[in-house]
Amino acid sequence: MSDAKARIAILGASGYTGSELLRLLLRHPRVAIVALTADRKAGQAMADVFPQFAPFDLPKLVTIDELDWSGIDLAFCALPHGTTQQVIKRTFEVAPHIKIVDLSADFRLRDPGAYEQWYGHPHQALELQQEAVYGLVELYRSDIRKARLVANPGCYTTTAILPVVPLIEAGAIEPENIVIDAKSGVTGAGRSAKESLLFTEVSDGMHAYGVGTHRHMGELDQEFSKAAGRSIVPSFTPHLVPMNRGIYATIYVKTAPGVGAAGVHRVLADFYHAEPFVHVLPAGQVPQSRFVKGSNMAFIGVVPDRQPDRVIIISATDNLVKGASGQAVQNMNLVLGYPETFGLEQIALFP
Amino acid sequence: MSDAKARIAILGASGYTGSELLRLLLRHPRVAIVALTADRKAGQAMADVFPQFAPFDLPKLVTIDELDWSGIDLAFCALPHGTTQQVIKRTFEVAPHIKIVDLSADFRLRDPGAYEQWYGHPHQALELQQEAVYGLVELYRSDIRKARLVANPGCYTTTAILPVVPLIEAGAIEPENIVIDAKSGVTGAGRSAKESLLFTEVSDGMHAYGVGTHRHMGELDQEFSKAAGRSIVPSFTPHLVPMNRGIYATIYVKTAPGVGAAGVHRVLADFYHAEPFVHVLPAGQVPQSRFVKGSNMAFIGVVPDRQPDRVIIISATDNLVKGASGQAVQNMNLVLGYPETFGLEQIALFP
Amino acid sequence: MSDAKARIAILGASGYTGSELLRLLLRHPRVAIVALTADRKAGQAMADVFPQFAPFDLPKLVTIDELDWSGIDLAFCALPHGTTQQVIKRTFEVAPHIKIVDLSADFRLRDPGAYEQWYGHPHQALELQQEAVYGLVELYRSDIRKARLVANPGCYTTTAILPVVPLIEAGAIEPENIVIDAKSGVTGAGRSAKESLLFTEVSDGMHAYGVGTHRHMGELDQEFSKAAGRSIVPSFTPHLVPMNRGIYATIYVKTAPGVGAAGVHRVLADFYHAEPFVHVLPAGQVPQSRFVKGSNMAFIGVVPDRQPDRVIIISATDNLVKGASGQAVQNMNLVLGYPETFGLEQIALFP
Amino acid sequence: MSDAKARIAILGASGYTGSELLRLLLRHPRVAIVALTADRKAGQAMADVFPQFAPFDLPKLVTIDELDWSGIDLAFCALPHGTTQQVIKRTFEVAPHIKIVDLSADFRLRDPGAYEQWYGHPHQALELQQEAVYGLVELYRSDIRKARLVANPGCYTTTAILPVVPLIEAGAIEPENIVIDAKSGVTGAGRSAKESLLFTEVSDGMHAYGVGTHRHMGELDQEFSKAAGRSIVPSFTPHLVPMNRGIYATIYVKTAPGVGAAGVHRVLADFYHAEPFVHVLPAGQVPQSRFVKGSNMAFIGVVPDRQPDRVIIISATDNLVKGASGQAVQNMNLVLGYPETFGLEQIALFP
């Protein structure tokens, strides 16, 4: 692709993952933003929807139907689940040359039965569901390079899978005894107007939600079970915390006999030592969500629990970056053959 | 004591638990605030330290040494641990008639060895350590009524003990498999000037702290072990969340075979059904920390986990009220023979 | 009315001013809550809408049409403007014995033309508009005592009028040179689901809104002009600040020659020295919004500006209490002949 | 300087302006960070002080005395005022080749008397005070290009001067009638441990501070008076708002007869139309502080007040970027002959 810029469309540019994609891509040396869609806000300028882009020259928002696919190399799809599978199916029919990085949940679950169980209806694009590659870069890098359709993982799942799967694969922990207590910033709930997400309802307090029902558990089950070679069902509780960004997962595990915290730390430090976006802290250190805010980094800490062979692992990401749009750009870089860090070199904004 | 008002002193009135005691006691029909101490701010008016009290007529702040104990019936002690045991020892020597509700950690651990292990030095008032009654009202009400010295429990421990101890005592859960993931508002860390507690360091993000070392674990071990009749060591991780008030404990338990979430809920609903300050939500409902903010209530929810016989229990309190000053007033009411709810009828402030 | 309890209805109990009324009235010794309405949530328990009330025994939510007015002595009306005037008109027709404290804007403006200008349509209950008393207690106490319909003032206007009107009346300031820069907590915008009020849209930042168009200016004009005896049009800019509660008004005035900050302070200190809910700070001291949070107090500070005869006045209230439901209870106390402070003795919740 | 990288030192790297400089400079294509000083934390890694830099390879923190000036081309000085003037004086003595961008207040006031008035002691480096160029880029660009010592302006002053000075110079407003009501995020107060800056003291509420005494008024007086050609003393009130970043200035002005809001908008739109970092919004639109968070942009809005010839101007910056470190990098780019936007292309992080 020489020095040319890939021509990029963002479908669903009026949500937070859409604007975050734009924030990152505007600093990417090898892409050109050629289309932004937002069905209900079509006709508006991006600066009307997100004033922080006012200083930039950007295409107007259009509907998906107005897109000219021939001028587009790769599309990010940041649409609601359900409609996504129909949009992508149709897109590949009219424009088979397109690469797609999908940020919805529609193509994350490989098993049609699991999809139906968690989402309540049969999948509408079964052959694409089989084709899609799960875009957890650090685990599926080589598959992603060859993919036409990448299913960008959920924010909770990215944050939990990064430390847990290598440990299961290494036989370092008991997969039957995993408790994931996860906390999310409010951007994780999107930009739609709901009473339960008003400032007055979520500031200065916290609460659990979706206990026993949150759909990201389908992804956890899939990836943990794949790593273990048998069906694994972790405990998982999501919480909403009064912060804008961040997934903070506190993970309680029981190690194989004698492995302990030192062994867990060694497995993770080895596994990630060459990765640009996963940083394993020195043993005993604990991350803060704010140290990854705005960046594509995952920070992982390992601390011994008080009982032998019990270990507490803490994993922190920015749900909009490594948990969504940043990882999506990372996936795009792989798909387009670019260096993986292009557009993602920004440092966390703290405070 | 007829209709007379008990004469109350607050030692350590310049901290948050001190001001919270005052907020509650100023609405109590049967107490008179006769003394407020704050060694470093002695000479100042309470309104200089906490302007919200400006409209009230209150005694000036004095040093402890200036107190005339003969005019005092009961003292709340809201001083740092370590110095507390010396102050209380001396107080009982010069004024044996005094009743004391102590909000520090000094008299919570019954075992001198445990105290030394968690606090790093031998206890300086061993006989008082034996005499003190652990002030978790719902468990020790009758002992508290007769006590001269009440050790008000910690905020994390109150929040975790309320749901867990009745379940251990009922044989409903496996005490060896308890994971407590606890989150605290920032007032839990007090009012001293530390870089790590600046707005800029703790807003818009979160983190775990004291993993494997937090001293409230000594209290949990003591009370869980007492309930189980054998040594119990739960997993416990405290987190700091950008909210002013609230302890939010997400507790993962494994029940005895066949008990499940329904059994857990029944035990707790029965145990607390007549308690004025513990509210067990309908099965499957989850509390929010904000629904107890400013009130003495504990809200408890019970939800089934996805695996049989695994249950998620969520317990929420205001760390400054039921987790500190509110429970201290509740203890005072018992010690002085007042109705337990006096001064504590305020409703949560939401939003 | 001897020791009997007045029978109270709250119309519009599912909003923040409704729940705040309930919080205060549940601690009032002489009222009984006999009805709560919420048209869209009729049939639900108040605890479904506001879980903090779960421990209390309360009437179920009903529609206004279901009310039996014969069992009601006084109603608080916390409904949207526009519909309010129709509801109240009909209520007085079927139940002329009722007293009403209205928290909407419908009866605050005495001049039908001003109402039409600010609200965009002619008033539907002109004779009631003339009858209503403006419920700024400290200025209209004796009229309120005799009123059947009290128009509870807006939060911004209460906060600004308290310091400004006595100064205009005393001739201490130039009414033509008043700049009011006002900041509000987010509860001021109510509980309806709007994108612009999401946590993610209003946390960790601030902005002005309604510049030159905010309807509370109609009230300011009315009261300032009445005090000055001529038409006064102050500068007024409202801002939204990431806090739940609080109106914080920074007011820039030019005094009559030689009056200065000392003169301004003297006028206000004298005017309010016997008032239970207005506290004028010592000269030169500045209030914080958090020192009135949850209380019915207004705190006022006076500081000299750098130019002679320019003074900065700062006024702080809790928009849901003195700015809405607290002042409404204060009005109710006057209307029912109760001591003015009943139900309003709570102290600010800080932190 | 061809393609070589300038060798940069940051003095005072353990504060927020220091870390913010580093965040920006690590993305700058033509600089190399060769030294970081922090006297009290010397010997530590930057990642110990600011963990977000853990993934980067950086020089260890050293004391200023350990610096080898011969290997440094330009130093940013982010030290407290007072000590700064002594450090810089000594630096120029031993290393006259050095360029310095100073972020303290020490060299902002040209008049030694004004300095002494606001800072309470005579200036210790009078000749440097005369030499220093005031680094408000949009006003002093050509002087800055030739400067050896640039005095980076204060955050409040940058935000207010940008809209006000061009209006004074154009004769569009009355300089005697300027009221600046300014609100700041908490990072503006730095990282030192003070009770008044604890999360618990500044969250969920707001307050004015430094009324009539804030030192940034010295800068405002200087620049406004210079523009007007006579002594100007604006009203100015700073407030602390519970947000991490942002200066939000609401400015009330009286225009020259007939100029009005349209005239004010035209002057500002013309003045800034080619500037990369100042964005004048369409007439009538109001900025939010969050739309410049993390970016070097200033957003300015102009709205008519209700009285003829009164106008409300709103100016928003990020106090750590355009109000401090971003503008410092902009100054560095001018001093070193680089394109002005290098290192400053990041887009605001919202939410």
Structural summary, described in words:
The structure is a homotetramer of 351-residue chains. Chain A is α/β, with parallel strands linked by helices. Chain A has eleven helices and 14 strands. In chain A, strands 3-2-1-4-5-7-6 form a seven-stranded parallel beta sheet. In chain A, strands 9-10-8-11-14-13-12 form a seven-stranded mixed beta sheet. In chain A, helix 1 crosses helix 11, helix 6 (137-145) runs parallel beside helix 11 and helix 7 (155-169) runs parallel beside helix 9. The mean pLDDT of chain A is 97. Chains in contact: A-B, A-C, A-D, B-C, B-D, C-D. The interface between A and C is medium-sized, with 18 and 18 residues.
Q: Rg of chain A, please?
A: 20 Å
Class derived from helix and strand content of chain A? alpha/beta
Uncertain parts of chain A: none
Residue-averaged pLDDT of chain A, rounded? Answer: 97
Q: How helical, in percent, are the residues of chain A?
A: 25-40%
Number of strands of chain A: 14
The biggest beta sheet of chain A reads: 7 strands, parallel
What pair of chains forms the biggest interface? A-B, 43 and 43 residues
Percent strand of chain A equals 15-25%
Reading side by side through the largest sheet of chain A, how are the strands ordered? 3-2-1-4-5-7-6
Oligomeric form = homotetramer
H/E topology pattern of chain A:
EHEHEEHEHHEHEHEHEHEEHEEEH
Q: Choose one word for the global shape of chain A.
A: globular
Number of helices of chain A: 11
Distance between the termini of chain A: 39 Å
